[in-house]
Task: inverse folding
């Protein structure tokens, strides 16, 4: 199959067939915000941050789940898209209790980076301040639901890379929570292999290694892609 | 089973049937108001009078005028009694000989009956939904025979496409085009799904059709399966409809026993098996990709489209998903031809539409009207206005995805494009009438609360946006809102409409946007005014 040529933000870009629009955009050196996407995991199109305008399509499409096609004309950051992205990040900050000053991921946090990237200097919505629990029943890791953004990267890393599916989502709407096994304390999970891939995949400080304090959790999400790379057979 | 055997069943049924019949509505609405007890009392009175052999008491499906239920019809005379109580049984039995009694007499010349045009509901309230013989006696399953033996799949799709039938689930996608796409999509297996996850507040069209005439839907599904090349079908019906599920299960077993479903239908090479999948209470599972995930046994969450289910649906195979009412239209179109169907309705919206007429309206119930009828005719003629004569303020169509249409626009014809042009949608058929006492901010807040509770939580704009919107509307209602809050409401509405993942989030702001469009003063009145809700 021949390579595809498309126009991204007025630049002609070539892409491999079967590539996603997000890959093509990144290859063109254009940075757009993402959250639920993580290299190496399947895409779900949930965070809506990578939405782009595609000429001839009425609706905005998530770049991570849209396949490139010949002659596609794409705009990645019109004023409208920038406004939507900022609103979405604001909604996330208002949803749970994101207090950077006491967070293990402060300084290494994708949500923080997103806020800076979309120019979010304050939140215009009322904080929902939900009463969220912290589970530190696991000997090596903990989860603080106050910091969870429901990107489900932990769910997919556990299922797709470790092959265990300890994590899943329970409840719906704003009540949804990531859970371990049958919604039981993580430490009592009989399926968890304590591999820590959920912790690597987590964009915020929601899942963290026990014993780290403010700002100490390094950001290591890219290691998920490295694991996939390392597993590829080369002989 | 061949055509002769089918005819024989119909003839036997006609021959065995007593001349006089009392049809007792046994759909969920009338059952809830005691219809089964009425049926039992009627049988008792008849057996006491020694007339059980001459008069048959038959449970039937919905007769339409649910607000005046329980309803009882005398056949062949055609009299309908309304608001029947068990105590009326004797009077009804004596009326069999002495003519109708005035007290319970239901006026069949009222526009409620005369303005309707039943196609989907043509057997409703006339046949026993739990007996396949009743359905065969009114001509059932002959269309399927005709389709399998006389038409090619392509010809069936041609007929449906020419008829102009559009999806009755609400969005109005051309049915023939959808069938053609599924038929042409390559796949090792294909599936047909009937979406019966009706969840809009105030809507009960699909429930009534399934409770009253389940075989009509099964036959429509089988024809669709033949046309697209599927051998397996699923009916995804919500768990809150136990009676519909029970009747569907009976219908499937009966049809399979007669060789009308299953392997080698009508001794042809065509196989079609239907299974029921019961929803577990999530509104979002009415969205087709979430519905498919739910049937596959996964969490009922939507995924971005494309690919559409017609290409990659259930287990990645081409899948046809249509609504109950869409399937229920199929046999009539093939029987009478596409040209007949095209004559009904407007230029772009053909045929009829079933509505559940509820709210502040005298004639609450199930109606089927030709497309193009105006809202005024539905509200004032068929519905007969509000019960206490209070002026009607607005009509809400399309449930949480629709909008409120104010009384001054009641001359809008009911078709897909016209309703969209005034800021609402056709939707699946919920129609809630509101009078002057209804506060439109409360209406908008009610629907947003519904969407907030039903959001699956996958995408951020819908998950958090609905909560923020609900909180802002609550603030407004309590008189604690600032002028800028109105801007924030509009901004959130736009964000959700443009960026949400599925139809639920994309259309959730519609009730707010349409009430803002037509009743903005009600919002503005509430800004900065403390309202006392203590009373």
Result:
């Amino acid at each position: 199959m021949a390579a595809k040529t498309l126009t991204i933000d007025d630049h002609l870009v070539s892409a491999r067939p079967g590539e996603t629009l997000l890959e093509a955009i990144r290859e063109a050196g254009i940075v757009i915000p993402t959250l639920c996407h993580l290299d190496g995991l399947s895409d779900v199109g949930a965070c809506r941050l990578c939405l782009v305008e595609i000429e001839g399509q009425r609706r905005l499409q998530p770049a991570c789940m849209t396949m490139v096609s010949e002659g596609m004309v794409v705009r990645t950051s019109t004023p409208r898209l920038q406004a939507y992205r900022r609103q979405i990040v604001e909604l996330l900050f208002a949803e749970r209790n994101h207090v950077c000053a006491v967070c293990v991921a402060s300084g290494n946090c994708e949500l923080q980076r997103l806020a800076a990237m979309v120019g979010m200097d304050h939140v215009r919505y009322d904080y929902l301040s939900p009463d969220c629990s912290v589970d530190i029943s696991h000997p090596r890791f903990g989860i603080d639901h106050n910091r969870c953004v429901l990107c489900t990267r932990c769910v997919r890393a556990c299922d797709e890379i470790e092959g265990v599916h300890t994590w899943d989502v329970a409840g719906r709407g704003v009540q949804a929570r990531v859970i371990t096994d049958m919604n039981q304390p993580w430490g009592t999970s009989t399926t968890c292999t304590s591999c820590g891939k959920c912790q690597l995949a987590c964009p915020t400080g929601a899942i963290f290694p026990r014993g780290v304090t403010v700002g100490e959790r390094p950001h290591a999400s890219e290691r998920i892609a490295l694991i996939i790379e390392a597993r590829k057979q080369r002989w | 089973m061949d055509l002769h055997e089918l005819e024989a069943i119909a003839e036997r049924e006609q021959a065995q049937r007593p001349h006089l019949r009392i049809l007792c509505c046994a759909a969920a609405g009338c059952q809830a108001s005691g219809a089964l007890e009425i049926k039992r009392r009627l049988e008792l009175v008849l057996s006491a009078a020694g007339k059980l052999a001459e008069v048959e008491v038959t449970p039937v499906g919905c007769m339409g005028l649910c607000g005046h239920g329980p309803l009882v019809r005398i056949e062949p005379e055609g009299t309908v009694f309304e608001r029947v109580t068990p105590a009326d049984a004797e009077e009804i039995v004596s009326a069999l000989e002495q003519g109708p009694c005035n007290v319970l007499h239901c006026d069949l010349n009222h526009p409620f009956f005369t303005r309707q045009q039943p196609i989907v509901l043509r057997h409703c309230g006339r046949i026993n939904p739990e007996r396949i013989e009743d359905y065969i006696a009114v001509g059932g399953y002959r269309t399927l025979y005709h389709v399998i033996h006389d038409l090619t799949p392509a010809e069936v799709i041609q007929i449906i496409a020419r008829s102009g039938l559009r999806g009755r689930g609400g969005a109005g996608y051309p049915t023939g085009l959808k069938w053609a796409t599924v038929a042409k999509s390559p796949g090792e297996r294909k599936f047909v799904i009937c979406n019966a996850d009706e969840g809009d507040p105030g809507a009960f069209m699909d429930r009534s059709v399934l409770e009253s005439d389940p075989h009509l839907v099964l036959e429509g599904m089988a024809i669709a399966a033949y046309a697209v090349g599927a051998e397996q079908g699923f009916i995804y019906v919500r768990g809150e409809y136990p009676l519909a599920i029970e009747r569907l299960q009976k219908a499937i077993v009966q049809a399979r026993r007669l060789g009308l479903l299953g392997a080698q239908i009508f001794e042809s090479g065509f196989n079609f098996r239907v299974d029921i999948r019961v929803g577990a209470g999530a509104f979002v599972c009415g969205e087709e990709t979430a519905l498919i995930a739910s049937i596959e046994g996964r969490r009922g969450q939507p995924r971005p489209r494309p690919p559409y289910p017609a290409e990659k649906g259930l287990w990645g195979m081409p899948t046809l998903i249509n609504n109950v009412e869409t399937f229920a239209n199929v046999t009539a179109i093939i029987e009478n031809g596409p040209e007949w169907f095209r004559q009904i309705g407007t230029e772009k919206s053909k045929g009829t539409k079933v509505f559940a007429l509820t709210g502040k309206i005298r004639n609450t119930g199930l109606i089927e009207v030709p497309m193009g009828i105006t809202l005024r005719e539905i509200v004032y003629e068929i519905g007969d206005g509000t019960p206490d004569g209070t002026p009607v303020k607005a009509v809400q169509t399309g449930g949480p995805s629709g909008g409120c249409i104010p009384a001054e626009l009641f001359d809008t014809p009911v078709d897909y494009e016209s309703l969209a042009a005034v800021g609402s949608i056709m939707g699946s058929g919920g129609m809630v009438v509101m009078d002057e006492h209804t506060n439109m901010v409360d209406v908008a807040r009610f629907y947003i609360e519904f969407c907030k509770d039903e959001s699956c939580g996958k995408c951020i704009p819908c998950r958090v946006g609905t909560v923020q919107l609900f909180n802002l509307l609550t603030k407004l209602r309590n008189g604690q809102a600032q002028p800028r809050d109105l801007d924030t409401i509009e901004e959130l509405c736009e964000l959700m409409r443009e960026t949400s993942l599925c139809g639920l989030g994309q259309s959730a702001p519609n009730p707010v946007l349409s009430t803002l469009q037509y009743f903005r003063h009600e919002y503005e009145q509430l800004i900065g005014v403390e309202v006392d809700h203590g009373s």
Remarks:
- The first helix of chain B runs from residue 3 to 16.
- Chain B has 22 helices and 13 strands.
- The domain at 140-342 of chain B is CATH 3.40.50.11540 (Rossmann fold).
